[in-house]
Every structure is written in structure tokens, then in C-alpha cells.
Amino acid sequence: QQQAMTVEPDHPCRMPNAERLASEGLRFNRAYTVTAHCCPSRASFMTGLYPSRHGIHNNIMNRAAIHTVLNEGVSTFGESLAASGYRMLYSGKWHVTTTENPCDRGWEELLVTAGKGTHHGLHFADWKERARRETPSQGARARGTLRREGWGDFRLYGTSAPRPDTDPYHPGDLRVVHEAVRGIESLSESDQPWCLYVGTIGPHDPYIVPEHYARMYDPADVELPPNYADAMEDKPRVYQRQRRFWSQLSDDEVRESIAHYWGFCTMQDDLLGITLDALEASGMADDTLVVYTSDHGDCVGAHGLYLKGVAAFDETYRIPLVMRWRNGIASPGREVDEFISMADFAPTFVELAGSDPPAHSYSGNSLVPFLRGETPSDWRDAFYSQFDGVELYYSQRVVQTKRWKYVYNGFDFDELYDLENDPHEMRNRIDDPELADVVRSLSARLWRFAAQEDDLIGNPYPTVSFAPFGPMVGFRSEDT
After folding, report:
1. Of 96, 243, 296, 337, whose Cβ has the fewest other Cβ atoms within 10 Å?
2. What pLDDT does residue 122 have?
3. What is d(CA 27, CA 341) in angstroms, rounded to the nearest whole number?
4. How far apart are alpha carbons 8 and 325 in whole angstroms?
5. How many CA atoms lie within 13 A of 18 on its CB side?
6. How far is the C-alpha of 209 from the C-alpha of 160, rounded, in Å?
7. What DSSP string runs through 78-132?
């Protein structure tokens, strides 16, 4: 849940280990998740497919799940690498299917969190019990906490209680990294090729971190996001409804929340540093491709919002991506400005390992040319999302070029942003008659991509066919 901007060189959040990786390798400035939700994005990372093809559309760990297992015939890069002789080690969060763990997809399990059978959310029997035990919130709202009558208050940020061993890290994430370090030590004893996945939880909300990180950034020095004042009057009503909820926070609390979030990100960077130190000590660092990325971002006060989900803003969709491979990346220290997709990782790893690709084609493309310093002439010139909701269902699709961003909202009015003149997405231009041709052109792209990915949003029934230009514009000669 880390914003891409936190690994940019001029950002106030300190990420020295990620910055070191970028200086010795590559920084990708336009890397995007396929959907701003954990499970479908992780499934895309593992499979190289979009949700319509891998079958995971929202949070699989609750009763609102649309689908809880990968589609039949879908394979992951873990299986491909294992079949070609790689030793595969997994430590951390899974969150891909409810019926399988990493060991079912080619991995040795060092530690698995959010694995098979883990369940989130409450049944109504739980709510009845909570109603019996808990009294309604009374008195002044606690700082950093949001009042939610009948739901229980939500603590957005804070300082975690000191631990007896004075460990400065989040205990769950530290354990993930310690297991990964043990894995690196065991890998150094063999010449077998390997792949290690290290999946920490942070900086997932709530931003509750040890005191060292909670105090690392002074809220007085934190500037409010440049789009924080967005009143959302020209945005979908669900965006407005969310903003109304978060407006309980004062400006000072927003600054404090951002400071805690940055501290959480720096903690992740310190944990990355522990992992990199172990890799250096193993003697294998020069021949290892290291990838640092996230499943999606977090609004962290942008547009007055927090967390992730239906709001299709850059803060939730653009992800950090840096890579280092000392003996494999040409001209290190470069930046790549092409559109990168969460679906590009699996084909990249399979090509680098020399593994046989799966029977199904990929939605994404291999990033290996960029490692060599090449940009394929036919590389995509747009980013596409595929969002079908969280624990509440929505149908939303984004098509974004370097100039324009069109958001099709099946549940409300659409969005159009001129990113060249409005990079912070403050002004929705969807009703500007002078831009109707832009919307039509982007709609044509949207439908062609939907056809490529066997998407499910093309139903013509009048109560669900709200897109201003329907699928046929994607397949008429004047629109192609």
C-alpha cells in the first residue's frame, strides 16, 4: 500500500535503500497496478494476467468475494521457475487464493501470512456480540481516530506500544524479513538458481508504528497534498461520500497521519536494508535481480481521502518500482518513463529464468528489454485498469495516456483529466463538449483492451450500458 512518489528522489519520505537500488539499477516512473485492491493485484503479479483472465476480482477473504480461486488452467511464474530448476522461497503475505498456499504453486514456505483459509470481516453473529459488549462512543473524538456509529471507531494512525525487547520494527514484518534472511543464508550454500519473495504488510493502514518511526517526521514540516482542497463537486458521489467521512480529521491530524505513513514507509526501507545486507554477505548480490514494488498505493490525504479502492486517482494506482541487477542491467542509474503494468512481472521472471511460458498467453509483457537499455517500438502507450469493487461492488475502468486519463464509472458519472495541465486530477473535464472526441478515442481504446482481456463489461442492457460510447466504437474503422 505504498505510494510511488515515496521513492522519488525529491520526496520528503526517506527511502535510502530503495534509492540505492535505483541508483545502481532502474527506476520506473510510470508503473501501475491493474486494480487498487490487494488480492486481484497480487494475482496479476503472480500470473501476468488481468482479473478477467485470472479470476480474482476483489478481496477473497470474506463473504463478498466474487471469486476465491484462480481460474482453471491459470498458472503462476512460481510454477514455471520451479519446473526449470529454480529453488523458490516464500516469506510473507500471500492473499492470492483461499484454497491454495505458495507451496501449491511451486514455492517452499518460510513463513506465510494471509494464507489459505484466513478470513476477514464479520458475520452478523459477531455484530450482535459486539453490540452487547461495546458501548456507543461517547465524548470527544480521539485524535487520529474517526467516529463511526454502529461500526466501531477507526484509528487511522498512532504509536504502537513498546515491546519488551525494544525491537524498533513492526514485529510481524520483522519476522517476515528474518525468515527471508535465513532463506538467503541457506541459498548461499548451493549453486542452484533461486527466487525469494519477501512480502511485508506495511505500510498498510492503520499507520500505527513504533515510536522511533512515529516521531521520525515532524508534522509541522509536512505539506498537505496539492489536491487536498479538492471539494469533489465534479467527482462521483461515492468519492464525495468518502471525503465527507474523512473530513472529521483536522488539517493538523492529516499532517500527523502523513508523517506516520512516511515513518511506516521508511521502516519498510530499513527492512529492505536488512535483506540487502544479507544478500551482500552471501556473495550473491551481483548476480541477483532485486525488485522493490507494492501491490497498490494509498490516497494518504490526497483529495481528502485515505486508503484505496474505488477512487481511481494516481496516488492509489501508481506504484513504486525499482530494480537492481549489477551484472545484468545496462547503464545503471537510468529512469524508464514507459507505462509498466503489474501484469509485466511474471513474463519478465519467466524470460530471465529461461523457463517455459505457460499454456495461456500473458496480459503483460516482459521488461527484459528495459534492462538491456532498449525500448520496444511496439511498447504500450497507455495504462489500463480493471476494477470490479472491493467489499462493495463497482465497475470501473481506466485508460490513461501520458496526456489524458478517462475513467468509466458504471455506477456514476465518468471522469476525464488533462494530465498535462492538471497533473493532480483536480478538474473533471468529462462534460466539456470540446473534448468529446478525446472521450470517444479513449473509449475505443478501452473497448479494444476489454476485448483483448475477455472483460465482462460489455452488456448492452439499458440499465448497465452507461458508457458514453459503446463497444462498437472500438471496432469501427474510423475509430481504430
Report:
1. 337
2. 76
3. 14
4. 19
5. 27
6. 5
7. HHHHHHTT-EEEEEEE--S-SS--GGGGT-EEEEEES-TT---S--HHHHHHHHH
